[in-house]
Each structure stands twice: as structure tokens, then as C-alpha cells.
Design brief:
mainly alpha; 7% strand; binds heme C; 8 helices
């Protein structure tokens, strides 16, 4: 027999409609807890989002312990200027050459740092004896435009390199002070120094 199409029982659900069922309180609490734990974990892994700490470092103390000291930063700045400016004449290892006398074992480097700074600021010409060896040339005022920081950096670098041992140890601040004194004295110097004018302006070998 043929079934009446009107009478077929359709096996269908009612049309879905938007209701207003609520998320249960338990689920909400669990979700809040999970996101709290998640945020806490992410914070921890990122040193509590410290602006100065990035992977692979885990804390500000660790970063601080690995950062170079002010002295080391100064030396590396000085090394840069030595290599790009001074090495051309004084040799890459400071042992001198036809263009300039040695900076290694030089009393002009290991002695009074004001003298060393003054040479870089104004240049020097005429006869000079460096570690017992006479030289007679002319160094231009290569550091005329250097600020105290830069001048002190190159002085610090050559004082502590090439096997040099300064007559007196200077801290970074003392060296900055010495360089600024050297600059004040050098102001009245017209043109390059000669050995006599330099020694008169900067007495003392420490
Ligand atoms: C163009 C070559 C030239 C350059 C660049 C140069 N110098 Fe010199 N420097 C000389 C000459 C030449 C003398 C010796 C001058 C003389 O005979 O009176 C000298 C002398 C010196 C002295 C004293 C003598 C000694 O050997 O210790 C110092 C210190 C010195 N220079 C440091 C420097 C530093 C630091 C720089 C770089 C910032 C530098 N010079 C760049 C040529 C140069």
C-alpha cells in the first residue's frame, strides 16, 4: 500500500534556535584559573616581562652579571679608534714603523696620561725619544674633534695594550678627569706640540 505523503513521520529535530543557556559557574572558574596559571607561566619564562631581559636570559641579575663593565666598554671603544686611526702610523700591534714611533713600551703612553691625551688632541712634531729610540716626524691633531669620553677611551686602550704597564693605575673616572684637565691646558697651545712645550705644559710622569 502507498503511504499518504502527508502522514510520513519525519525523523527530524526541531529547528535550532538561540536560547539563553548559561555557562556553568564551575567551568567559568576552571577557565579563569587556567588562564591565570598560563599568564603566570608566560611571565616567569619572560623574566616578568622585564624590558631589559630577553631570551636566552632569565633574569635581570643574569643579564647584569654578563654585561661588560664601564671599563671594558671604554677599552673596546678605544680599541676601535686605535685600529681605525692610530694603527695606520703606529702599527697594528703598536710597535711603530716608518710613519710613527712605537706606542709599545713608550714612556709617552705609560707615563702622565695628560701628555698622551694632549698629543692626540694637538699632534706633535720634531725630535722625540721613544723607549730610547730617536724619531723625528710629525703627527697631526688626529683627535682634535674627540670628546673627553673618546679621548680617554683611546688613552686607556693604548696604556693597557702592547704589554704596556702604566706608571700609575687610573680608574675610568680618574682618566676622564685627567683628559679634561689636559684639554683645558691644551686650549692655549697653537699648533702641534714639541717635546719641550709638551713637557712644560704637563710636568710629572704619572
Ligand atoms: C699620520 C700618522 C699618525 C697617526 C694617524 C697617529 N700618529 Fe701618533 N705619532 C705620529 C708621529 C710621526 C709621531 C712622532 C712625532 C715626532 O716625531 O715628534 C707620533 C707620536 C705619538 C705619541 C708619542 C710618541 C710615542 O710613540 O709614544 C703618541 C702617544 C701617539 N703618537 C699616539 C697616537 C694615537 C693614540 C693615535 C690615534 C688616536 C695616533 N698617535 C695617530 C704619527 C701618527
Amino acid at each position: 500500500m502507498i503511504e499518504d505523503p502527508q502522514n510520513v513521520k519525519l525523523n527530524e529535530q526541531p529547528e535550532p534556535s538561540a536560547g539563553n543557556a548559561q555557562v556553568s559557574l564551575g567551568v567559568t572558574v576552571v577557565l579563569i584559573l587556567l588562564s591565570y596559571v598560563g599568564c603566570y607561566k608566560v611571565d616567569k619564562l619572560n623574566a616578568n616581562f622585564a624590558a631589559s631581559v630577553h631570551g636566552p636570559f632569565g633574569s635581570e641579575e643574569e643579564v647584569r652579571s654578563l654585561a661588560p663593565s664601564a671599563e671594558e666598554i671604554m677599552l673596546s671603544k678605544g680599541e676601535k679608534d686605535f685600529k681605525s686611526v692610530c694603527a695606520a702610523c703606529h702599527g697594528p700591534t703598536g710597535t711603530g714603523g716608518a710613519q710613527g714611533p712605537a706606542l709599545a713600551q713608550s714612556e709617552w703612553v705609560t707615563g702622565n696620561p695628560r701628555r698622551t691625551a694632549a698629543i692626540i688632541l694637538k699632534g706633535i712634531s720634531g725630535p722625540i725619544i721613544v723607549n730610547g729610540k730617536p724619531f723625528n716626524g710629525a703627527m697631526p691633531a688626529v683627535g682634535a674633534a674627540y670628546d673627553d669620553e673618546r679621548l680617554a677611551a683611546v688613552v686607556a686602550y693604548i696604556r693597557g695594550s702592547f704589554g704596556n704597564v702604566p706608571n700609575k693605575a687610573y680608574t675610568r673616572d680618574e682618566l676622564l678627569q685627567a683628559v679634561s684637565e689636559a684639554r683645558a691646558t691644551a686650549e692655549s697651545q697653537d699648533g702641534q706640540w714639541s717635546v719641550p712645550t709638551l713637557e712644560t705644559a704637563y710636568p710629572g710622569t704619572e
